[in-house]
Task: inverse folding
């Protein structure tokens, strides 16, 4: 059932395209008729994201769920400004990122968005601490502050004493914790996680999601993550179901 | 620091590949530095040889004398200019000379020859003529008891005329005033020169012989630093302006000559006219054939070095490109977390610059003993080489800042240039594509 907070106005159950969402000032993420198509002609066109309008409020812990190929990753990439929209808009904290230049988008991502990837994607030649520190270096934060915050982040993800290890000396779960710490280090408004537990065993995956949930609650950071794992999606406070690039269900839990 | 650490560690991701690339660059540096050293050494040796042997670094003549020497194309006030030159601290020494073609007669033979009138004191400071005496001594300015001047002749002319020390030599030529110049001289010294047929006379004797009182054809100048020939020639050319010389004739006066002396004498006008017609030529113009040969040879060497560097940098380009392609996903991540395209470009350029710097340091260390040996010892050539008329019998190197700096700058510049296309490629990667999302 659609939640009361949901602003998706389309009739979700019959997979009709959502219409433009009414603007809510509190929303930190707003998409309006968002589309991302691949392929040039009508016959080959793949509608990875098809007319999605959603609003996500600050500090929500939202899961985008759906089967493989449903458009979860593409939607996350569009929300993070990693991919170009075909039509529609993505507003993050009231700013339409579709209008930004490459450099502006880079700065926006650096300051407002944290990313967690399925394959961890840590820089292999940097230690865990340096991976976390790198984004703060991009932000121009001074050395002392960086070092302090790295220690804080490592402590928050339970990796004290592991800062000097390179990613290849860490387990998958530990690497993903470093990735979470990296995403948190820049003090972003939003963290987008693309199937963050997919490469982990279920126990580690659940523990990792619990950590994300804790960080969400203690730091009031908006988390949006994708998953198709039932156990994982149960931890989310809001589930947005998508299929064939369209939202079919949006529920608060 | 973190960016530098990241670049440094990225170099060592593929140790073997980086090592091979660095070695090829170090080899390229070594070859380039060595080739430049040999070139500089050979040419500097040749330049020093002829400039200090006879030509000097700079020569002053009447205009167009170098192209079409004529007896009447003279410098009419050599002592005034000589006084100016003595005050110039950039000038080591200078000398005055007159030239004329002559017919030389011994008792039994005759030959054409080149007469060179030399200032005996200045010539010994400016050329190596005195060092080349193989018989007799450096002549003096005194006539013997019979009233004849002593002359020095080249060993070749002595052979052709079959004369030796103490023999009489008759010279016949045309004086500047149109008269037939002829006189008898005594051979007082023989100069080692197996090619030229030259007779050296004291300057005043030559001026008297050729009816050129107080006139010379050439002032040859040796500088303290041979590399300043062109700029010093320009400087001297300015100093030789009539205003400058005449102005200095009245030290302390701020007014011009024309206002100081309302009625310029005809002599002053003549002097002014003469001075403005003087040409100051660096050795590059005086020894134009040699200089052009040298420049052509250097261009050839630069092309060869360019080809070597090109081959080296094809390897570097390959390394950088492979490195970028292998790390496509990583660049996608760096962009996703907020790295600007310029920061990605900087990272890759920094990596290449570091690799090039290491290679240069290695190449520099390897080149020092080699270049030092060639500078101090050199390689004796089995067959002497003639470069623009200067014969070199030993291959020697030079060791100066240019030898090491030129290839270093070339290597660094090419490294940066070569890294730019792959760097832009990495910087323009779409994060979505790089992350392999679809």
Result:
């Amino acid at each position: 059932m659609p939640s009361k907070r949901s602003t998706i106005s389309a009739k979700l159950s019959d997979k009709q395209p959502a219409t433009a969402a009414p603007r809510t000032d509190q929303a930190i993420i707003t998409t309006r008729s968002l589309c991302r198509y691949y392929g040039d002609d009508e016959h080959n066109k793949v509608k990875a994201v098809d007319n999605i309008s959603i609003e996500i409020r600050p500090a929500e812990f939202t899961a985008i769920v759906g089967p493989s190929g449903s458009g979860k990753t593409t939607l996350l990439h569009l929300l993070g400004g990693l991919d170009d929209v075909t039509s529609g808009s993505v507003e993050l904290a009231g700013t339409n990122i579709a209008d930004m230049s490459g450099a502006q988008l880079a700065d926006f991502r650096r300051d407002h968005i944290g990313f967690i990837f399925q394959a961890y994607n840590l820089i292999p030649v940097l230690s865990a601490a340096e991976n976390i520190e790198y984004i703060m270096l991009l932000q121009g934060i001074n050395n002392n502050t960086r070092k302090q915050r790295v220690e804080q982040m490592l402590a928050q993800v339970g990796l004290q004493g592991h800062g000097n290890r390179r990613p290849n000396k860490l387990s998958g779960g530990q690497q993903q914790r470093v990735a979470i710490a990296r995403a948190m280090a820049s003090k972003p408004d939003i963290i987008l996680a693309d199937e963050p537990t997919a490469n982990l065993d279920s126990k580690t995956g659940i523990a990792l999601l619990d950590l994300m949930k804790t960080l969400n609650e203690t730091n009031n950071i908006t988390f949006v993550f994708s998953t198709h794992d039932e156990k994982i999606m149960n931890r989310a406070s809001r589930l947005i179901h998508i299929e064939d690039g369209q939202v079919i269900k949006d529920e608060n839990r | 620091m973190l960016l530098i650490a990241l670049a440094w560690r990225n170099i060592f991701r593929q140790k073997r590949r980086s090592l091979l690339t660095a070695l090829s660059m170090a080899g390229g540096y070594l070859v380039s530095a060595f080739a430049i050293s040999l070139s500089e050494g050979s040419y500097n040796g040749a330049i020093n040889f002829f400039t200090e042997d006879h030509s000097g670094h700079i020569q002053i003549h009447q205009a167009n004398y170098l192209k079409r020497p004529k007896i009447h194309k003279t410098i009419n006030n050599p002592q005034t200019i000589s006084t100016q030159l003595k005050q110039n601290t950039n000038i080591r020494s200078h000398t005055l000379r007159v030239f004329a073609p002559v017919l030389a007669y011994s008792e039994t033979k005759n030959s054409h020859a080149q007469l060179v009138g030399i200032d005996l004191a200045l010539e010994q400071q400016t050329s190596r003529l005195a060092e080349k005496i193989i018989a007799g001594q450096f002549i003096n300015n005194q006539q013997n008891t019979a009233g004849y001047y002593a002359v020095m002749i080249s060993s070749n002319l002595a052979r052709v005329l079959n004369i030796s020390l103490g023999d009489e030599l008759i010279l016949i030529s045309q004086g500047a005033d149109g008269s037939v110049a002829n006189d008898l001289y005594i051979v007082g010294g023989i100069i080692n020169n197996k090619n030229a047929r030259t007779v050296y006379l004291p300057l005043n004797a030559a001026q008297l012989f050729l009816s050129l009182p107080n006139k010379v054809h050439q002032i040859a100048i040796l500088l303290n630093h041979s590399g300043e020939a062109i700029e010093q020639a320009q400087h001297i050319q300015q100093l030789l302006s009539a205003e400058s010389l005449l102005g200095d004739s009245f030290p302390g006066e701020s007014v011009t000559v024309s206002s100081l002396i309302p009625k310029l004498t005809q002599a002053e006008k003549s002097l002014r006219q003469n001075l403005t017609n003087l040409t100051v030529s660096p050795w590059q113009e005086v020894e134009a054939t040699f200089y052009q040969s040298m420049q052509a040879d250097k261009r050839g060497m630069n092309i060869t070095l360019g080809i070597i560097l090109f081959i080296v940098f094809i390897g570097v380009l390959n390394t950088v490109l492979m490195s970028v392609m292998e790390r496509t996903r990583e660049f996608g991540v760096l962009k996703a977390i907020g790295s600007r395209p310029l920061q990605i470009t900087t990272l890759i350029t920094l990596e290449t610059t570091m690799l090039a710097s290491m290679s240069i340091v290695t190449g520099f260390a390897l080149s020092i003993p080699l270049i030092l040996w060639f500078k101090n010892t050199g390689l004796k050539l089995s067959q002497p080489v003639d470069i623009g008329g200067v014969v070199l019998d030993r291959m020697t190197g030079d060791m100066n800042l240019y030898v090491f700096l030129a290839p270093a700058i070339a290597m660094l510049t090419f490294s940066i240039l070569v890294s730019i296309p792959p760097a832009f490629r990495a910087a323009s990667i779409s994060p979505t594509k790089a992350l392999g999302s679809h």
Observations:
- The two ends of chain A are 10 Å apart (CA to CA).
- Chain A has seven helices and eleven strands.
- Confidence is low (pLDDT under 50) at residues 1-24 of chain A.
